[in-house]
């Protein structure tokens, strides 16, 4: 199994680079897909004191200004979930506005990362 950031839930020093990894991957995918929408977090990933939740939910999230779409990635523990990938869509409200949210739940590997990025890209372009 080609799991990436395997110990991200057990070691805080692995968690932060894992978040940065997702930011780079999403930024690259949006640029390559010529999707130029301003994005912003819509879900908290930190406590009031600024400490990260360190739970992988979400490992990345963004709502896209100028569209009615938001998405989040929930990264699960590979020891508990093995090779896992699932996704679903639901309606959410952000600041009083209805959005369609794409939720992807996975254990991180190169293959599942590419599947997630492809699904996000295709969904954003639809």
Task: Give a structural overview.
It contains three helices and five strands. It is of the alpha+beta class and 126 residues long. The mean pLDDT is 94.
Could you give the topology of this structure?
Elements: H1 12-32, E1 39-40, E2 60-64, E3 69-75, H2 78-81, E4 85-94, E5 97-106, H3 110-125
Features:
126 residues, alpha+beta, five-stranded mixed sheet, 3 helices
Could you state the order of secondary-structure elements as H and E?
Answer: HEEEHEEH
Shape: globular
Average of the residue pLDDT scores: 94
**Helix count from the secondary structure assignment:** 3
Q: What's the count of strands?
A: 5
In short:
This protein has 126 residues and is an alpha+beta fold. The chain has 3 helices and 5 strands.
